[in-house]
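Renewal narrative, Specific Aim 1. Our central claim is that a sequence can be written position by position from structural information alone. The example that follows is taken directly from our test logs and has not been curated for this report. It begins with the structure tokens describing the chain, in the order in which they were read.
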């Protein structure tokens, strides 16, 4: 089915069906199945859970998964900063939880994905994360974001208008404080003072990332300031991402950074089973529920396909049909929802595009015991990818 040139001439029903058809189309393989990996690929875990009804054990999956990842050679644990809504609500302050994980793990990197910098005082950010760095033996990395939702800025309403500028200025202040330098601040009596934060972190330089939803300018800015990038594939294709990574590497080179250093991490919904039917049974319903509770993600996906569809206005049966089409689109492609073979193919495509790390998003709804039983599949995928890199 080909898209007509004038989408405005379509009825809402025709637009919806066209979107569903586009979502069903599988992205063709870009890398031969037997090709070696173009570059080493690391695997970390990301958490973004929104279930606040888990009682006293609501962080048990995080803790057990972190212990597993630490023992089995995974690279990192990513925790977000979220406020006031159910989506990601278990993680209002990643520093607090990473302070706990610092004592539960020995080697894995502890990463914020992300610190919403305009909502924070950089002095406080430097202090809190220096504590985590000391507790962990120097394993902290921070990704920074400018913020998305206006309601989040209840914490700092005056910063919403220039949130990107606030983010960049805040990052620079945190970097200075981390190195042991002082920055100017204002005392309680209005005097200008110089502030140096304590404790002194173990890492002399703070490894940072920028969180990029897909805007090429964010990739370029990350390269310009010597940061890594953490992004996703929900509403961008692998070939689009590959072009943005080229932009990122070129910006690093232009501004005096080694273009081959700097980590590009991609967040992917992850559930690996022995068959696609197994994955459908364990993850299909939870994934569709996850999207239904966060229709903004689906609206972004529709917009990225050039479709002006108000998904929130669809009748329940049609919305469910569309959600199932989205799941089928991501099953075996543009996610790690699939079998060991489809996930290895996906890993080859990502490595060929210039990706360095996959952040496996686990807690989007599958049963916790099913997630824990699935974790060895991620470790095995990491091992297969390592073996596929030419020596």
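The sequence written for that structure reads:
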């Amino acid at each position: 089915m080909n898209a007509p040139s004038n989408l405005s001439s379509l009825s809402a029903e025709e637009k919806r069906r066209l979107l569903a058809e586009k979502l069903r189309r599988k992205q063709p393989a870009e890398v031969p199945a037997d090709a070696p990996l173009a570059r080493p690929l690391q695997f970390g875990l990301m958490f973004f859970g929104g279930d606040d009804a888990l009682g006293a054990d609501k962080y048990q999956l995080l803790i057990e998964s972190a212990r597993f990842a630490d023992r089995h050679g995974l690279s990192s644990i990513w925790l977000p900063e979220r406020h006031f809504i159910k989506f990601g609500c278990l993680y209002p302050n990643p520093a607090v939880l990473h302070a706990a994980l610092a004592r539960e793990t020995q080697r894995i990197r502890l990463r914020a994905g992300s610190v919403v910098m305009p909502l924070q005082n950089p002095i406080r950010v430097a202090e809190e994360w220096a504590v985590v760095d000391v507790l962990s033996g120097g394993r902290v990395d921070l990704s920074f974001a400018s913020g998305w939702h206006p309601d989040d800025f209840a914490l700092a309403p005056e910063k919403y208008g220039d949130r990107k500028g606030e983010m960049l200025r805040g990052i620079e202040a945190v970097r200075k404080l981390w190195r042991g330098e002082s920055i100017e601040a204002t005392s309680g009596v209005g005097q200008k003072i110089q502030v140096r934060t304590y404790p002194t972190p173990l890492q002399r330089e703070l490894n940072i990332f920028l969180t990029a939803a897909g805007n090429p300018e964010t990739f370029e800015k990350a390269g310009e300031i010597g940061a890594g990038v953490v992004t996703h594939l929900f509403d961008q294709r692998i070939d689009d991402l590959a072009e943005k990574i080229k932009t990122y590497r070129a910006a690093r080179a232009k501004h005096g950074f080694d273009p081959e250093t700097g980590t590009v991490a991609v967040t992917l919904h992850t559930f690996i089973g022995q068959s696609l039917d197994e994955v459908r049974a364990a993850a299909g319903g939870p994934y569709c529920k996850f999207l239904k509770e966060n229709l903004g993600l689906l609206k972004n996906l529709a917009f990225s396909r050039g479709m002006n569809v108000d998904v929130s206005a669809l009748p329940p049966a049609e919305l469910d049909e569309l959600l199932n089409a989205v799941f089928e689109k991501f099953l075996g492609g543009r996610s790690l929802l699939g079998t060991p073979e489809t996930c290895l193919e996906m890993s080859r495509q990502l490595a060929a595009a210039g990706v360095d790390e996959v952040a496996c998003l686990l807690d989007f709804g599958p049963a916790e015991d099913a997630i824990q039983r699935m974790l060895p599949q991620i470790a095995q995928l990491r091992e297969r990818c390592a073996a596929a890199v030419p020596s």
